[in-house]
Amino acid sequence: GGAVGRARKGASALRGHCGRAGGRGGSTAMVMPAAKKARTEDAGPKRVVPTADDLDEGTPVIYFGTSHGFVRDAYQPLDEFWVTDAETGEIVRDRTGEIVTFKSKDLQLLAATAPPIPFDADGNARSGVLLLGREEHMMQILKIFGHPNIEERRNPQLLLAIPCTECHQEGLQEAASKGPPPEVLELGKLQRPDIHVGARSLQMKQVAEQLGGELLILEGFYVLSGVQLPFALKSCEAKGVTMWERHRRKEICNQIDLCVTASCEHRKSEDPAVAARRALAETCAIEVSDTLWGEAVQVALRRRLSVPDLPLRVKDQSGMEVVVVVLPDDATSVTLNGVVLCFGEPAGSNYLVDPAAAVPGGKPAVGSAAGAASEALADGKIQGKTVREWEVEQREFANEPKVPSGWLRVRSRSTNEVYFFNKQTKEATFSFPEAPLARGWTKEVSKSTGKTYYFHAERRASTFERPTA
After folding, report:
1. Residues 214-256 pLDDT 10s
2. DSSP states of 200-216 as a string?
3. Which of 148, 283, 306, 405 could bond to 158 as cystine, CB 3.0-4.6 Å?
4. Is residue 343 a contact partner of residue 362, using CB atoms and an 8 Å limit?
């Protein structure tokens, strides 16, 4: 499925059109392209022999010992790869014209593509942030961010919400290959007409590996990934660009990359977390409150989600420090001037208190909808009133959107906040409740895009619009 299925199709097409090249073990001789016969290169930077898992589409490689190229198609399960020559832009063929199928052992990575530290000669550093949240958080963010610009390069060009459970190698590469729309892919290719440009998940894969298995068990949560386009050639040679930055733009950031949510360059004397928070606001129009950003609350949220070992900070292979921020289920949001989305905590909430120990009897703490409902139902009433009394009280909310059948708006006595209460299930939530789906329909989430859709098994029908029948 996903990226693997697409890579398998690419492999079949290549073999079907030109016949199999046979790999290193076959009898077919492989030679350097004609354009390269007269060109020799010194040993250059230290090289690394990759494993199959290291080679995504768009990964820069050395082939035939001295020639530079990029992985054009990859099928990791069979350790088979096809390479585009960096100079000619053409797929690598042997002397008979057959397309060459490489094994990972036939290719090399340049260690220089992963600098040991993220500092340049002027003492600058790079830091980033990876935001995790529920589906409703992601939908709010994507709505504010809007459609990607297809006229000029931006940072980031696009935001993608990827289920945490899909943040493994195959899932991330599938998101990289299927997430960006064709217009964004084309704009990325226009930035570097001198080389082959593809979509890869290299940085997100590195960060996901650092986060470990805790990330993969976060059911119902998504990572917010920023899609970065390669720098244009003229930007690589711009006046005032340092030697390190020129190298980074031209040799490292030369593909369409699935990256962390936001990142920026800053003086190394600045706290990476402060710089990352500024980048999130300036490039993605997202603000997170001091409380939610604080390390103590982030540790507490991880414990509540049963992922206590999910790191607060990680580093990618370039050494860039990435702050990992989890939004709580009940995070509130406010839009400022229609352009900045601010996430905060509900009034009266205290994430540092264990919900099970917050009140006698192991009930959830007041300050969440569940806590309010638990407190209210202790005497068989809802916030001191019967269901019938609250049904009469709904007149107070006559100008608000109508709630689905079975739901009531209830005002908390302790915080004065309004939440929603289900008369049948006793469920309480601050999120506006959805009406039950029509019979036969189920709510699903796309593994490749993270988008919600609805599926009817008997009819074999799917739709992005919530079905009414």
Report:
1. 999 998 999 999 999 999 988 888 888 777 778 778 878 888 9
2. E-HHHHHHHHHHTHHHH
3. 148
4. no
**Secondary structure of residue 78 in the 3-state scheme:** helix
Asked if 133 and 221 touch (Cβ cutoff 8 Å), the reply is yes
Q: Which two tokens stand for residue 2?
A: 């996903």
What pLDDT is stored for residue 73 in this prediction?
78
Helix or strand (DSSP H, E) at 174: helix 169-178
Count of CB atoms within 10 A of residue 415's CB? 17
- DSSP E strands in 14-66: the ranges are 47-48, 60-63
pLDDT in tens, 267-288: 888 889 999 999 999 999 999 9
Distance CA 215, CA 217 (A): 6
Contact 137, 333 (CB under 8 A): yes
- Within 10 A of 258 (CB to CB), how many other CB atoms are there? 30
Q: Which of 147, 165, 127, 135 lies closest to 261 in space, CA to CA?
A: 127
pTM above 0.90, yes or no: no
Q: Which amino acid is located at 67 in the chain?
A: S
The residues near 11 (Cβ < 8 Å, ≥ 6 apart) are 73, 75, 78, 80, 82, 101
Task: Read off the amino acid at residue 166.
Answer: E
Largest CA distance in the chain: 89
Torsion (CA) 79, 82, 85, 86 in degrees, nearest 10: -70
Name the token pair of 197. Answer: 């440009």
Does an H or E element contain 171, and which? Answer: helix 169-178
**Would you tell me how many other CB atoms lie within 10 Å of the CB of residue 354?**
14
Distance from C-alpha of 18 to C-alpha of 99, rounded to nearest angstrom: 7
User: Which of the given ranges, 2-6, 83-87, 140-144, 248-252, has the highest pLDDT on average?
Assistant: 140-144
Q: How far is CA 407 from CA 14, 92, 402, 432, 439, in A?
A: 57, 63, 10, 10, 20
Residue 284's closest CA among 267, 313, 264, 256?
A: 264
Please write the tens of the pLDDT for every residue from 335-391: 877 788 999 998 888 888 766 544 444 444 444 444 554 444 444 577 778 888 888
Tokens of 348: 């009266």
Residue with the two structure tokens 């077919």: 28
| Cis preceding linkage at 328, omega within 30 | no
Residue written as token pair 């689905």? 404
| 105-123 per-position pLDDT tens digit | 999 986 544 443 344 445 6
Kind plus residue range of the DSSP H or E element containing 188: helix 182-191
Q: Reduced to 3 states, what is the DSSP secondary structure of residue 4?
A: helix
Q: Worst-scoring range by mean pLDDT, 30-39, 50-59, 83-92, 343-352?
A: 30-39
Q: How far is the C-alpha of 448 from the C-alpha of 1, rounded, in Å?
A: 10
Is residue 262 pLDDT above 90, yes or no? yes
